[in-house]
From TrEMBL:
InterPro entries: Glutathione-S-Trfase_C-like, Glutathione-S-Trfase_C_sf, Glutathione_S-Trfase, Glutathione_S-Trfase_N, Thioredoxin-like_sf
Domain of life per record: Eukaryota
Annotated ranges, domain GST N-terminal: 6-91
Species annotation: Polysphondylium violaceum
Protein's recorded name: Glutathione S-transferase
The family this protein is said to belong to: Belongs to the GST superfamily.
Family annotation (PANTHER family): GLUTATHIONE S-TRANSFERASE GSTA (PTHR44051:SF8), GLUTATHIONE S-TRANSFERASE-RELATED (PTHR44051)
Domain GST C-terminal span(s) in chain numbering: 98-235
Amino acid sequence: MSSNNNNDLTLYSNPGSVSTKVKLILKYLGIPFTNVHINTANNEQHTPEYKKINIHGKVPVLVDRSSGQEVTIFESGAIVLYILRKYPNELIPDIATDLAGFINVFKWLEWQTSTVSSSEANVLINKIFTPEPIPSIVEKYEGIYLRALTTLDEQLASNKYIAGDKLSAADIVVYPHLAYLQLGIIPTFFALKNIERYYKELEQIPIILEAKNTLFEAVSKHPVISAFIQKNKSAPAPVPAPTQA
């Protein structure tokens, strides 16, 4: 484990998209935190020391000692909601004064966690991390992910941002997945032009561009993902159809 130093908030993370969304929320809101890097490639998340922090052996985890009572939160969606509810911000309306506005953003936060994050994981596991990928299974999970992305593309056809005309927490948390997709993991992603307009606009925000560069640097150092990207740079791209529900 390696870390910087802030005594109140400690985030245990890796450079992946799920950890990155939590870092982005914290940085966007200007909240200082200690980042403890967990080398998941070396299975640090499964050590007895780490499992005392998160029994599930996963990242990210946020530990908050700011109130004098230690609060430990795992699951990225729970961490993001905790931050948004604890710290004043303009990324989600106040539930007490604008329930409809809160739910409009919150439903997209839930969509990102339940649909986008899981779809990305299934594609990465079955297409990149499986030693001998099975084409039918890869096609299935690519289709499911593409269906979710097509829905986002349709939403962005009539909205500047995911939840409307104002930047929200939903945009911050979905961006890291779009950065990964720019690496060509699903080549047909590049046909989604509303998403392309959207992520290019988000990248005008300095901390988001910084997050993209950090993700790309981490990928370049990851032997499995970098090897896949190099191998498939000139390979013809199959065109998976969106999977029907």
